[in-house]
Specification:
Blueprint: E1 7-10, H1 20-26, E2 31-34, H2 40-43, E3 48-52, E4 58-63, H3 78-94, H4 117-127, H5 138-146, E5 154-156, H6 176-202, H7 209-222, H8 234-266, E6 273-278, E7 284-294, E8 299-303, E9 311-319, E10 323-328, E11 331-336, E12 340-351, E13 355-363
Helix pairs in contact: 6-8, 7-8
Length: about 375
């Protein structure tokens, strides 16, 4: 798409996530500009500061004190210069004690392009003897402001102050059905599907990038502040819940499919494999509940070397196989079909980091008895 602005631009976000500096830096961005979330006392006489995430990553940041639109209605008139613009610039000068670079954003919602904006800038330069006006951009402003100047003020973490800008705190509890559903889908996507797909790729199974991208795009459609925030109509909320349900169906389907593909890749010939997954990037020993189905009552769990592993049966029930009609010399008869056993084990398993442990269910009597701790 061409040039990417080297700014983590947050002109109208109702509160800033603590990890945004870290995320911006990971995307290669050098600067951030934001409007909301700061108390005046935090600024300490400089609208430029370093914003630091909890992981220690910081980013050079500017606070647009009057928002993203104080320059959008510039007029080439003495009345506007003296009574409107000059007071704003005087305030900005007091808040920029370490630099002579002042930022006057000219953005706005639903505002038409100012066709004669360059001519207005020229008029201001001719009629304001105290200042020079430059029609510039955020990147150039940040580069000029920080060149040769290291602003010492450090502001850390989440920014939720509402002294100058509304935070919409109440939307956090609005439409909790949407928020909980969104949390469920995101958690499955990030904590289960993506690690599982990465494991599968090491076995030669194609990573489902197109499907995962589709889910993320659908989730982004839900995240407009008038959507996930709940400040909308019931019809819109219904569309959002449909979107989330569709995303969850895709994620659940992919998780099930990839688990089957991994199991077949491990051993396509056996149908009694038990595969335990660990999606965390560290080894984990834990007691895992495993449910098996078998024709025989006597079952146990072993590793692939046919060695017993520590396990115990905590529940077992016989399930009827149903009935079928059999034609005999005496006519049709209803006979019982052999059933099967549903057995619940607790297995003491040591799971590898971001990997899986393969076990097997073994039917028939065994002299070996093992129990979990």
């Amino acid at each position: 798409m061409g040039h990417v602005m080297n700014i983590g631009y947050l002109p109208d976000i109702f509160g800033q996530n603590a990890y945004l500096p870290s995320m911006f830096r990971q995307f290669g961005l050098d600067y951030s500009i934001l409007q909301c979330g700061l108390y005046n006392d935090q600024v300490k006489g400089n609208l430029n500061f370093r914003w630091e995430s909890p992981d220690g990553t910081d980013i050079k940041t500017n606070y647009i004190f009057f928002g993203y639109g104080p320059g959008k209605f510039l007029e080439p008139s003495n009345d506007y210069l003296e009574n409107h613009l000059d007071p704003i610039l005087n305030s900005l000068e007091e808040l920029n004690q370490s630099t002579d670079q002042l930022l006057l954003p000219s953005g706005g919602d639903q505002v038409l392009v100012r066709e004669k904006f360059p001519q207005t800038i020229n008029w201001l330069n001719e009629n304001d003897s105290k200042r020079s006006y430059i029609l510039s951009n955020y990147e150039k402003f940040m580069e000029d402001s920080w060149r040769g100047t290291e602003f010492s003020n450090l502001i850390e973490g989440e920014l939720l102050a509402s002294q100058k800008s509304r935070m919409h705190h109440t939307i956090r509890s609005q439409r909790m059905d949407l928020k909980l559903k969104n949390y469920t889908v995101e958690t499955k996507l990030i904590d289960q599907l993506e690690p599982l797909a990465t494991m599968a790729e090491t076995l030669g199974i194609r990573y489902p990038k197109a499907w995962i991208d589709q889910v993320w795009k659908q989730l982004f459609d839900v995240h407009a502040h008038d959507s996930i925030g709940g400040c909308n109509s019931d019809d819109t909320n219904e569309d959002i819940i449909h979107r989330l349900n569709k995303c969850e169906r895709i994620v659940d389907g992919l998780i099930n499919l990839i688990k089957k593909q991994i199991t077949r890749a491990i051993n396509a010939e056996k149908d009694n494999l038990i595969v335990l997954f660990n999606f965390l990037p560290k080894k984990k020993r834990r007691l895992v509940e495993v449910v098996t189905f078998s024709r025989e009552k006597e079952v146990t769990i072993k590793n692939l070397k046919n060695e017993s592993v520590s396990n115990s049966i905590i529940a077992q029930e016989y399930l009827s196989g149903g009935k079928q009609i059999v034609v005999t010399a005496e006519g049709e008869k209803e006979v019982e079909v052999k059933g099967y056993y549903r057995t619940t084990f607790i297995v003491d398993a040591e799971l590898p980091s971001l990997g899986y442990l393969t076990l097997q269910m073994v039917s028939g009597k065994t002299d070996e008895v093992s129990a979990s701790s």
